[in-house]
Amino acid sequence: MKLKSAFIPIYALVTLSVSVAILPGWAGPADASASVKGTVKFEGVAPKPARIDMSQDPICAKAHPTAATTEDIVVAADGGLANVVIYVSDGLAASTFPPPQQPVVLEQKGCQYKPHVLAMQANQKLSVVNDDGTTHNIHPTPNNNREWNMSQPPGVPLEQTFARAEVAVPVKCNVHPWMKGYIAVFKHPYFAVTDKDGSFELKDLPPGTYTITAWQEKLGTQIQKVTVAAGEAKTLDFAFKQ
Amino acid sequence: MRMKLNWVSTAVIFVSILWSVAGSAQESHVGKLVGNAKRGKALYVRYCIFCHGPYGDGRGESAPYLDPKPRDFTKAVFKCRSTPSGSLPLDSDLYDTISRGIHASGMPSWKPLLRQERVDLVAYIKTFSSAFQEEKPGTPLQIPPEPPSSPESIQRGGDLFQSMNCWSCHGKDGRGYGPSAPTLTDSKGYPITPFDFTSGTRFKCGDSDQEMFRDLVTGLDGTPMPSFETAMTPDQRWDVVHYIRSLSARKTAAKLKVEPIAK
Q1: Rounded CA gap, A7 and A14, in Å?
Q2: Chains A & B: contacts with CB separation below 8 Å
Q3: Domain B25-134, what fold?
């Protein structure tokens, strides 16, 4: 009897501590609420985007009342640099991140890739959509993943994946040689692509010290270190020049 | 004495099991033949090394003089397959390529070698890339029976040749001078010419209607030629085969030759 009554508080204590550990938001290593946000700027005079001649396929040309332009360096009026991939390249505790259920969408519209630079997780589904009235072929030429090349007439769905991390897989359409894009693939969910103003945000980071890399297709890569405490919001800016 | 013999034979069996498990990644299976990478290496050094190089990366001594360039086996990307675009070839696909050669390239037919030797070469070629240990080949294509060619089928194939934008590389008349042709490169960045359907030259991955049908499904990986697996129905692909055949100086297709061993 005495023995039994001594057991109950111990049992209760163990149960309680286990359930507290499982509760979301419990302070400790599981607290992934820090964030890093900032902007990427282009320093100096922004290069003028080149015009694209789409006359070989009238369907493409017709989609652009004013001539389409190249998207390799897209700079906003205030110098914000779009299409830069920002990602955690080092500092994450070794753990695996299941790919999100939601597919990422790569659109072919006006015979250009939307978005021009896409970021996704390895083994996440990539849904390729053809909104044009003409047939494209989507042809990634990776270094670290399998190369594939699929023809896609209007309206036919297409789903693919990339198994390994790679920054970044060039994508082209051989039918329309001006079509170029990039797909950055990561093993973790801590990545972003700058919007048209050059701003980005990495969310839900666990506290720690990270190496953050900024990658731009023409201007190369830049690296910065950042340390965030639990729940902290840090600012980190990058500047590229030609 | 008897005990000792038993012990020895057990050890021999155990070691040979270990050996076969360790060696399985370097094996190839084509029909009933099992290829051995060690034997394949001896053949490779004798016959293949001059173009494909000692490291299998396509940088052999003769490579600078060849166009198209010898295959880089370290990438494990192959033109002639029965598997979907982006997936590894079957052992029998590599065997077929070694046997047939790649027409209009420096790769000859290696039929003078014994079948066993060609299977051994497949086993050795697979050792140049870890992909063959990490991944499995995709589901191979089943080629449906071919409907007979007819003026209507050729007409439909011609329409598809337009709507599928085949002409942007192969040209409106199929001579390989489409508007995108000058921009095309292979996966190594070397310029590559679209096929001239009027030339009568044999197709790279085999010249039968069945092999043309297969090329339309799988695409030629490592080149700009895409897969039309989801883009066209099987009947549509046969129409395109008939149309392309109608462009050629040689109107009769080669019969699909199947070596009894390969399939």
Answers
A1: 11
A2: 82
A3: Cytochrome Bc1 Complex; Chain D, domain 2 (1.10.760)
For B129, the token pair is 């890339």
The topology (CATH level 3) of B151-247 is Cytochrome Bc1 Complex; Chain D, domain 2 (1.10.760)
In tens, the pLDDT along B143-176 reads 999 999 999 999 999 999 999 999 999 999 999 9
Q: Which of B72, B168, B169, B177 to mutate to test the interface with A (most CBs of A within 10 A)?
A: B168
Q: How far apart are the first and last CA of chain B?
A: 49
Nearest CA in chain A to B216: A151
Q: Do B226 and A151 touch (CB under 8 A)?
A: yes
State the CB neighbour count (10 A cutoff) for residue B139: 10
DSSP string, A170-232: EEE-SSSTT-EEEEEEESSS-EEE--TTSEEEEEEEPSEEEEEEEEETTTEEEEEEEEE-TT-
Q: In Å, how far is B226's CA from the nearest CA of chain A?
A: 5
Tell me which chain A residues have a C-beta less than 8 angstroms from the C-beta of B86.
146-149, 160
CATH number at residue A105: 2.60.40.420
Count of domains observed in chain A: 1
Residue B49, judged by CB atoms within 10 A of its CB (0-12, 13-18, 19+), counts as: middle
Average pLDDT, chain A: 88
Q: What is the per-residue pLDDT for B156?
A: 97
Neighboring chain B residues of A139 at a CB cutoff of 8 Å: 224, 226
Q: Residue ranges per domain, chain B?
A: 25-134, 151-247
Torsions phi, psi for A235 (to 5 deg):
-110, 140
Q: pTM of the predicted model, to two decimals?
A: 0.85
Number of C-beta neighbours around residue A85 at 10 A: 25
B184, closest residue in chain A (CA to CA): A174
Residue numbers of the domain that contains A179: 2-240
Q: Which stretches of A30-115 are DSSP H helices?
A: 58-62
**Torsion angle, CA of A103/A104/A110/A113, rounded to 10 degrees?**
-140
Q: Which amino acid is at A64?
A: H
A231 to chain B, closest Cα gap in Å = 40
Instruction: Give the whole-angstrom CA distance, residue A173 versus residue A111.
Output: 9
Cβ distance of B224 and A135 shorter than 8 Å: no
Which of B261, B92, B165, B125 shows the shortest CA–CA distance to A59? B165
| Inter-residue contact B175 to B198 (CB < 8 Å) | yes
B151-247 has the same fold as B25-134:
yes
How many angstroms separate the Cα of B62 from the Cα of each of A124, B51, B58, B69, B76?
42, 5, 9, 10, 21
Residue A198 near residue A84 (C-beta atoms within 8 A): yes
Q: Helix, strand, or coil here: A123?
A: coil
Predicted-complex ipTM score? 0.85
